[in-house]
Amino acid sequence: MKRIALILISCIITVCVFAQNKIIVQGSYPDLYIIHKTTGKESLTSIGKLYNLASTPMVKLKDVSENGMVAAGTEVRISLNKNNFTQDGQQGEGETLIPLYHIVEKNENLFRIGQLYGKARIDFIREWNDMNNDLLQLGQKIIIGHLKVPREKAGGIIAAANNQTDNNDNGYEVKEEKKPEPKKVPEPTTVETKPYSNSDDTDEGYFVTQYPSDIKGKQQQIKTGDAATFKTTSGWSDKKYYVLMNDVVPGTIVRITVSNRSVCAKVLGALPDMKENTTLLVRMSNATASALHITDALFQVQVSYFK
Question: Are residues 35 and 142 in the same domain?
Fold first, then answer.
């Protein structure tokens, strides 16, 4: 009975957290942090223990009295580390996971967001946010990890989040945001379902029926160049293949050809602005590369799409 009660308490805490304000991660990896706004009768020591911090949280000295107490409404910077921050969804016995969020900025995609937070796994981010597709909207808040704290301390953290009275730069949000509806993509006028020739593997993947054979007012573009991969667990069973490519509208279906094999993939967004991507035409998921029977780290591909 005691075990069942603990499970029920954990579930109740989780529901409460999701129903309350969102906690936004700030800073740059690995120096990530969140803001704790004090509710009164708190000290830096008690706040540190609340968040499993071995050292004292950061706060302006003028906000701390001689006896170590912190004035109500003070913003305290809470560092995120291996003791209180997890990105694998695993929790120990007696622990509670509180979701932490990232606010989507212009030209960001899931791959780039994952890189911003220590190469967080994209498939985990999709699962945490119940995402049916990889389309993101400017200003959207998505979970990128969890605050890991003892169950008995979760109430204090929730109280600190609820201490916010309006939307502000601290990242807390009073009004629950509705999940944005995915954008509807117009059906192409005609589609090409004929598989490529000279190959025993004739399955071009889930998106093959969305690759048009002709679009009125648009011309087929064919580009050849170097390609590399990014790691993900998506696409291995459902054959939903994804790529990152510059100068192509996100959501566009492209056909990638290597030798006598082809697959159709969806463009998630542009290549991240990193040195290793400057010479690449495209970066594809490792499931996409596997479907093309590619094992090299760098290889040449042909990409066709309509623009």
Answer: yes
